[in-house]
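Lab manual, section 2.4: Encoding a predicted structure.

Procedure: take the sequence of the chain (374 residues), apply the prediction step described in section 2.3, and record the output as structure tokens. A sample record is shown.
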Amino acid sequence: MTVSRVLITTTALAAATALTLSGCTSATDDAKQQSGQAAAKLAGSTEFNDAKLGELAGKIKQAVQAKGAGGVRVAMVINSPSAYWTEGRTGMENAAKELGVQANFQAPAGGDLSAQLSILDTLRSDKVDGYTVSAVDPKAVVGPVGAAQKAGIGVVAIDSPLSGTPDPVTYLGTPNTDAGQKAGESMKTLLGGSGKVAILTGSLTAANATQRIAGFKKAIEGSGIQVVDTLNDDSDPSKALSNAQTVLQANPDLAGIYTVWSYDGPAAGQAVKAAGKAGAVKVVADDAEPKTVEFVRDGVVQAMVLQRPYQQGYLGVYLLTALKVLGKDATDQLLRPYLAEKDGVSTLSSGIGLVTGDNLQTYLDDLKKLGVTQ
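Recorded output:
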């Protein structure tokens, strides 16, 4: 009996001590623990398609330098002035230095469509040699892009593909349906195959958004995961935060959030953390905004499904320079082995990365090597 009492007392003391120690952990520590247990099941990757694209860049550089690229002027036109594009701008600047060409970075204020259309018209009037463009609305830019093509200006789509133009436009970027599927598969793993999720997006018309959402939904087909709401913020980060707060309040049993545009990740992370649900509500975010990176480090966001905006800026300049110096036929011949049909368009894939807390530092170290800081 004495021995039994000692064992019981010791067990009770150990349990009490464990509870006391548990109560001393911070909310961030709890989030890291919950996030780490789930995210550890995800196999992260930071290879993207850098090896193949580096090979292609080398071939273009050799061919272009043989003819000379002096005086070539190109531009990179993005869809919204978010931190996401810092990486792409660095890529653009690095490529311009390597090739000895002029490159201009253009961002429409507030992601405004009319501002982007004005930028495209000005570039045509200025007779630049080519531009890459991430369209605010793909259908709306078909006219300006067609006018540019007729004027002999090279055009490459980045981030979001373009269709319906007079001449087919190569898409340089992540196959968006594949990226959405990667996000859906990650969410299935994190939730164990069941639970209610919401989607936050900056557009319901842009091809990159619609394709990612379609891919996400395809990945969760047949599982116990249910999409309870898809909220559009119309490229407004403050509305994204409001949407995240609203969906959490409306669905107390919400298990996960998938964020489609770059600033949606920080919005979801902020809302989840403020609601005291960090680690409990799983967040899978497209893109690596600095705040999203911080949330991954803290365990508030469990995974980032990443494009390679650096390559969209870097190789974009190479492709535009090739179109001007080598001509379309020669450029197409160089590109052909690297292209694939994805989402109905000819795609030069920049690859897909999956970053969790486990491989976050590897990803950040790789960016530093490219001259990108977070």
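Check your result against the sample. The mean pLDDT is 89.
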